[in-house]
Amino acid sequence: MAEFMSNSDAFTWAMEADPRLRSTIVSLLILDERPDWDAVTHRFDRLSRVLPVFRQRVVASPVLAPPRWEYDPDFDLDYHVRRIAAPPPADTDALLELCRVAAMESFDTARPLWHVTLVDGLADGRAAMISKVHHALTDGIGGIQIGMTLFDLQPEAPTPELPDPPGGAVADRWDEYRAALRYGAGLLGSAVTGALTAAPRLFYDGLRDPRGAVVEVAETAASVYRTVRPISRTGSPLMKERTLIRDLSTYSVPMAQLRAVANARGAALNDAFLAGVTGGLRRYHEQHGSQIDELHLTMPISLRTEADAMGGNHITLMRFDVPAGELDPATRIERIHRRVRRVRSEKSLPYTQLIAGALNLVPREVLGSVLTRVDFLASDVPGIPVPVFLGGARVVEQYAFGPTIGAAVNVTLLTYVDTCAFGIDIDVGAIPDPAVFHRCLVEGFAEVLALAD
């Protein structure tokens, strides 16, 4: 039976038509030593059997149906799990260059949308694992769940058994059309059922409280508009150009210190994180003799529940403005907290799939013109709180480089044990001096962390 993409996954996949909007996630693990290669490949083999999407490719469906997942009849684990010797000078810069190239390359769409590379022989005796996954396979939190099926909590762990490999027949053309027709009929049936279920409640609410019913509908409509509203220009007078060239870098701060700053102001860790990023953006503009006020931010919000299966996309991308020009870091945290709290309570959130379905009908060039006017993207991913091991080697650092999806820069916060690790993905067309931006970002977080003193 055909497994169609959800509307949000189909939206993520369709954006590939504009390469500036690619949704590729690259992550970097630093290991304290070379892991056991057989153990590593065994874990990824098991993952591909436990989570079938790792053995599935994306195929187009007939009209009126979204793309679907289909088992790759030529699945080759050795294609997806590779190892190489670290290129000279075998240091962090060499790893970041490998990550940079991975982030810029498109996937082979005839195969499942992932691969990992073990990089051996780093100058300090360590090793690294670079993974590349399309956002249609998983969101950030889903990726952490997947990671826990790969990692061990101790260096010498028993080898888990391999379940039977999943599989399915490749559909012929008539099967595709029949599946598309069933999908369309199911969609229509769900719409009719939903309308019949909702109509009595709406009628009753309208009789009981006419004004309240009208206000509820108006507020929901306004919330949907805020979610999809067009952006006519960037908030930044500098970061306007968009290209396919990327620059990646990393930075980290103690999680306890950043959380303490946030808690002291009744805010969340994410609010202090955004305050640090916006502080860096303000400093970057000041470095170039430019002033800013509000900047356009895209921020993923997780909709994942305990009932959701491992992996998959359970997020919505919310766009809103943040006070990047605010000089005082404490005030900036408090103002950002109020903005984010309001966004997290938007009435449009339960309608994410419907909104994504509607956006799938919008021409890609129209969506691209909106997304490329977003100034920056920031994502906060709660990571693994305890030390973990892969193939007997201890994971000492973890970084995630999220896609810019048309923005000038993406800064992704991934927590690991007691550290907030930032993966910084820059479009060098928008920010042609990445080293200057990195220094400004470090200074932006320094002014936030100074509030803990």
TrEMBL record:
Using the record's annotation, list all stretches that form the O-acyltransferase WSD1 C-terminal domain: 312-447
**Key word Lipid metabolism present:** yes
What pathway annotation does it carry? Lipid metabolism; Glycerolipid metabolism; triacylglycerol biosynthesis
Please list the GO terms describing molecular function.
diacylglycerol O-acyltransferase activity
List, in alphabetical order, the GO biological process terms annotated in this UniProt record.
biological process involved in interaction with host; glycerol metabolic process; response to hypoxia; response to nitric oxide; triglyceride biosynthetic process
One Pfam annotation reads: WS_DGAT_cat
Q: Which reaction does it catalyse?
A: an acyl-CoA + a 1,2-diacyl-sn-glycerol = a triacyl-sn-glycerol + CoA
Which family does this protein fall into? Answer: Belongs to the long-chain O-acyltransferase family.
Name this polypeptide is given? diacylglycerol O-acyltransferase
